Target: DUF2231 domain-containing protein
Amino acid sequence: MTSLYHLFPSTIHPMVVHFTIAVNYLCTLGGLVGLIWRKDHFWGKLFFLLLALGILSTIAAGAAGVISESYISTRPSGIEPVFHDHKTYAMLTGLFQVIAIAVQSFSWWRTRSMRVSFWAFLLSIASTVCVSMAGHLGGTMVYQYGFGVH
Model:
């Protein structure tokens, strides 16, 4: 399996993860606008689509992280707790996104309205906080520890 991983460049994770971060922030922003302008169903639809895109891009970023990690032969001293927390926040990002889309879908099914669900919006905020923490820890690993830098 390692040989298949190496079909991608070692920098695949930083190339993909920035899209995930941007989509996550845009999703939360779209949800906020949708809560403010409740009558315009465009924002509810956009929120849902960005949640779905966020889930897909989070999966892609996680897979890219596994690929990039496979290129690393040594780990700097003291990085393990930071690396563990980085992965944990990344998984929580995806978990909050999946729960948010489920809540949004249930809300639409129950009310037959394309409005943004307040609870799904709160979950998208939690996802945005988690992706921010994962990004902060990823930056810490690179800039403080030199992790993944050749």
